[in-house]
Amino acid sequence: MAKKQKDRSSFASTLVTEHFGCSSIADLVSARRSFPATARADLQSALEWTFSQRFDAKLVGLHRNYGFNSLSLSDFLNEDHDPVLIGPLQYAEVDTGDPSAVRCLQRGLWLSQSDDLKFIVILDYYERHGSMELSIEVSVLPGTAGSNFSSAFLVDLEKLVYKSSSYRGKVLSLEQTSRYSGKAGVIKVHKLHSVEAIEFPLPDSEGRRKLIRLYSHNLPVSETLVDDL
Known about the structure:
This protein has helices at residues 12-20, 40-54, 144-163, 205-215, 223-228, and strands at 29-36, 57-63, 85-87, 91-94, 102-105, 107-114, 117-128, 131-140, 171-176, 184-190. The protein is of the alpha+beta class. Strand 9 and strand 10 (184-190) form a beta hairpin.
């Protein structure tokens, strides 16, 4: 009896090879860059800007049964045990201190092109040695043009991440992960209560003189300044 052929329509590898017009994932060349989990919201903003302002792209979600492992293009070659499948887009809401949380993609695949140069981008959010990390992998067909493009893409994306202001002007702390690794975990945003200036008790003139004389043992304070208070 002939062995039943697998339905490959849901395989991510099928989508990628059709996009490039190649016969195998092994024909591609990729470059990968890692980002700390603390840059998750900023990386999401950078990716959204890149694929709305610079390149048109098709975005699909990626799914694996063993989702705790990191994901790279080479994993697309495995079509027997735990293949990488096209699935729904899955987001996690990240608190950046703004009224609305930032929706950050867990795993995704962008299929796009720059002029005649086709490329794909894989985003992965995964656990490594007890801490969460992010990775971006850009894949192209072999050649100097593709190599130069993937390098420039990653450099430009990193610049956008550094310029982002998701946490600027906010009070933050780095939370530990569940396992001790010496690394910081996710960012926690502390929402401070607003306080009216009238709620702060201010000393009278005599009280201000006492405070300045108290600190004058360590700080040079002019006697004239004390007398003027």
